[in-house]
Amino acid sequence: MIQTWIESALKDSGWTFAEIMDGVSRGDFHLFRHPEGVMVGEFITSPRHKVMHIFAAGGSMAAMMALTPVAEAFGRANGCDSGGATGRKGWVRAMQKMGYRSAVPAIEKEL
Questions:
Q1: Strands 50-59 and 82-85
Q2: Higher-confidence residue: 15 or 71?
Q3: DSSP 13
Q4: Residue 90 pLDDT
Q5: Is the sign of the CA dihedral 4, 56, 12, 100 positive or negative?
Q6: How many Å apart are CA 48 and CA 68, to the nearest integer?
Q7: Tens of pLDDT along 55-68?
Q8: In this structure, what is the dihedral angle of CA atoms 25, 10, 51, 31, given to the nearest 10 degrees?
Q9: At 16, phi and psi to the nearest 5?
Q10: I need a labelling partner for 90 at 20 to 30 A (CA). Which of 29, 64, 97, 99 fits?
Q11: Would you place residue 91 in the very low, low, confident or very high pLDDT band (cuts 50, 70, 90)?
């Protein structure tokens, strides 16, 4: 089931399940598991901040709500001062209930 959830979350992202799992095995990515879903995160570090960034999540909404505090605690334990996520617009409304706010819109271009 984990592969199905991750592949669904990665649709149109350019990432593959194998790349994600390779990143998890190297320690570049962190996998947060729940019986009804999964989240994949990474640390983003800048000179002023360290962020626990969730970039893929799939499964039930109940699983996402249960995994969010787990990912937050993991981030805090690893020196993060904030948390965030990248995903579909619908996540903004869902995550506002947990204290998140919409941030700057993202854009991208292949180089």
A1: parallel
A2: 71
A3: S
A4: 76
A5: positive
A6: 23
A7: 999 999 999 999 99
A8: -40
A9: -115, 160
A10: 29
A11: confident
> Is 15 contained in some domain?
yes
Examine residue 111 and state whether it is found in any structural domain, yes or no.
Answer: no
**Where in the sequence is the domain holding 77, given as residue range(s)?**
2-96
Q: Which residue has the tokens 């390779």?
A: 22
Q: What integer is the mean pLDDT of 88-109? A: 77
The answer as to whether 106 is a domain residue is no
CA distance 63 to 106: 25
**CB 78 within 8 Å of CB 43:** yes
Write down the pLDDT at residue 96: 81
**Phi and psi at residue 70, in whole multiples of 5°?**
-65, -45
Task: Give 21-48 pLDDT, tens digit per residue.
Answer: 999 999 999 999 999 999 999 999 999 9
pTM for this one?
0.86
Distance between CA atoms of residues 26 and 110, nearest Å = 25
Residue that the structure tokens 């190297």 belong to: 26
Residue 104 lies in a domain: no
| CATH code of residue 72 | 3.40.630.30
What is the rounded CA–CA span in Å between residue 43 and residue 94? 22
